[in-house]
Amino acid sequence: MRLHVGCAMWSNTAWQGRFLPHPLPPGERLRSYATWCNAVEGNTTFYATPTRSTVESWARQTAPGFRFVAKLPKSITHDRRLTGVDEELRSFLEAIEPLGPRAHALWIQLPASFGPTDLGALAGFLHRLPRSHRYAVEVRHRAFFDDARSERLLKGVLAGSDAEWIPFDTDTLFRSPPTSDAERDAWAKKPRVPRRAFALTDRPIVRYLGRDDTARTVEGWQPWIGTVAGWLREGRSPTVFIHTPDNADAPMLARRFHDDVRALLPGIEPLPEPVPVEPLTLF
């Protein structure tokens, strides 16, 4: 039994000398991160399709069982809104091919303006995708959360292509006013949508956003402990990504979440031992 956990990125300035050795060349940071977590969100691919050589480097730094949830480029999901994107999609799929089994799912994050009237475009897009990959969709339009019919229609579209619905749980962030610059920035940018805790497939994916205060982050994820443990008992293979507004402690928090679930299910395979980080010196 294996639970995959990870962060929104594999490199952060605040991690250097704490979770990742410092100095460490950019081409080695993913390898070190992969000793802390066994999954990562592929947010960088949202801004541009990476070169094949870059993706080959990612594959070399990770084991085949490591999970990337790679986000489709915004040119596909936001600019073209899934229409007339065959060439962009082909280029993206060719670029990430070196990941092989590490490409756990391709993540289709849709803009908040993509609503129920756009479900035909989503259905057509999912139908045209190659079956060689798994797919997961994140929606932000309030109708999918507030209107039962819209939610039911979305679930039907996703089920028709065996695609997962990725919940982005921001409930803890918005539970009380922000207390730091990073939290204020997150309040301005992150979606304020209700928590959804169901799985449509055997590979559910959760994105959880806490606070910069560790205690409040841990308190907020408690409902997910039982949910994720339940999925594992059912034979599902979940992936959980832990965020905070500043992400300064995200690798440690991801491992703590893993420990919390493992306390309920001791049979879960342990995470790898992190690479030792030498203490900073003056010389």
Automatic annotation (TrEMBL):
<protein>
    <submittedName>
        <fullName>Uncharacterized protein YecE (DUF72 family)</fullName>
    </submittedName>
</protein>
<dbReference type="Pfam" id="PF01904">
    <property type="entry name" value="DUF72"/>
</dbReference>
<dbReference type="InterPro" id="IPR002763">
    <property type="entry name" value="DUF72"/>
</dbReference>
<dbReference type="InterPro" id="IPR036520">
    <property type="entry name" value="UPF0759_sf"/>
</dbReference>
